[in-house]
Amino acid sequence: MPPPLRCTSSLPSTCAKQLCRAGQSTRSFSTTSQQDQRITRNRRQLFRWLGSQGQNFLNPLNGSTNYLSAYNAQGQLKRVVRAAAEAETKKKKQEGKANEPANSGASEEGELEEGKEFKGEIPPETTSDLTPFPLNKSFVSQPVLSDDLREEIWKRVMQDGKSVRVVSAELGVEMSRVGAVVRLKEVEKEWEQTGRPLAKPYHEAVMSMLPKTPYDPTSRTNAKPHESINDLPVHRKTGTQIFHPTSESRHFTREDAAKVFDERLLPADLRVPHPELAEMHKDYKAGLSQEEREQRQMERDEIAELKRQRAEAKKAKKEAAVKKVDTGRVEFRFTEISVDAAGKDGRGFKGVGWRYGHPHMDRSRGAVKIPTSVE
User: What is the pLDDT of residues 32-55, one digit of tens each?
Assistant: First the structure.
């Protein structure tokens, strides 16, 4: 730990006054007096940067990211300079002067001329504007869910009673992310009810530096999807490279490809997170009208809802058959069983202890342990 700074006689008188003065709001960069400081090239470049690009980080833009790669050497937004040049070129074309150089608004070096201002709206960020590290162009800052979009996800799931799959398809957010948003929003609202403090200033500061996916309240579905929601997950059975010979005249489908990897593997159309979107696209490719596609989708939704209700009823019936005794510390669960449930050989899956395995007959007396026939 460095020693505390003390006022000594070895320091110049001007610096000693600045360091020891009580209530001083500003401090110099160095304790060396100005007459002893060398005006180096690096120092000049530092103050030149503070006066040009550095001003953008002292007064950041509202509703936009503020990364180094988004500004040129003069401290101007690159996308604003490009938009000004495109607007000037379009104006020249409309006036029939497309052959003349469009240099009244933006120069050839990629900067706005002095006295010229871009009067239109600031264009949205591009990929080059979302690289926070100038020496690492491969890293691109990915957008996060805005506060309004997260609130809408929680509202549709918890208040409107929609399923996670439906909300994911409507708003363009992956199902796992929808579930995470709902759980975290529940924790947030519980903390607000109990009076626990939230890190609101930290949240606002971080959200102001990141690109966000907005929510359009005028549309039922979000116009800008947040991410791809129907990517095919990689199954461990498909990790092996297989050369499967087949006839050229045979129609080899995805079902056939799944059977090659494993007999019980489902085809790709059924393993995606949203198989209903694949069916809707098939109806669209088949040339069906909008009304016919919606009617088929409603029928598929009714079948899926019926299957879900049957599964819930089966689970509730199984849960009702269990007798529960709560002692306050633990809960005992008793299930009625039958001795005959284990089957004739005692290895039936409904028998008691089946989940823990069954002992082998190697040490039982009188059992024949060698093969008596060759099959």
Answer: 666 666 778 888 888 888 888 888
Residue 96 φ then ψ, to 5°: 80, 25
Q: Is 331 helix (H, G, I), strand (E, B) or coil?
A: strand
179: region left, alpha or beta (phi > 0 left; psi from -120 to 50 alpha): alpha
Q: Residue 320 has what pLDDT? A: 92
Q: Tell me the average pLDDT across 112-138.
A: 76
Average pLDDT, the chain: 81
Lookup result for tokens 């809408």: 152
Closest C-alpha among 82, 73, 137 to residue 107: 82
pLDDT digits (tens, 9 = 90+) for 11-31: 444 444 444 444 444 566 667
Strand partners, 331: 326
Q: Evaluate whether 258 touches 242 at the Cβ level (below 8 Å).
A: no
Q: What angle do CA 234, 236, 242 make, to 5 degrees?
A: 95
**Which amino acid makes up residue 218?**
T
Q: Is the pLDDT of residue 233 over 80?
A: yes
Query: Which residue do the tokens 């401090």 mark?
Result: 27
Report residue 153: phi and psi, to 5°: -60, -45
145, 226 contact by CB (below 8 A): yes
| Mean pLDDT, residues 213-228 | 83
pTM beyond 0.90, yes or no: no
Helix (H) or strand (E) holding 203: helix 200-209
First-residue to last-residue Cα distance in the chain: 82
3-state secondary structure of 106: strand
Query: pLDDT tens digits for 89-101?
Result: 888 888 875 455 5
Strand ranges (E), 82-232: 144-145, 212-213
Q: Distance between alpha carbon 314 and the CA centroid of its chain, in Å? A: 35
- Given 3-state DSSP classes, what are the helix, strand and coil percentages for the chain, each rounded to the nearest 5? 45, 5, 50
| C-beta atoms surrounding 82 within 10 Å | 14
Which residues in 15-28 are b (16+ Cβ under 10 Å) and which e? Answer: bbeebeeeeeeeee
- SS3 (DSSP) at 268: helix
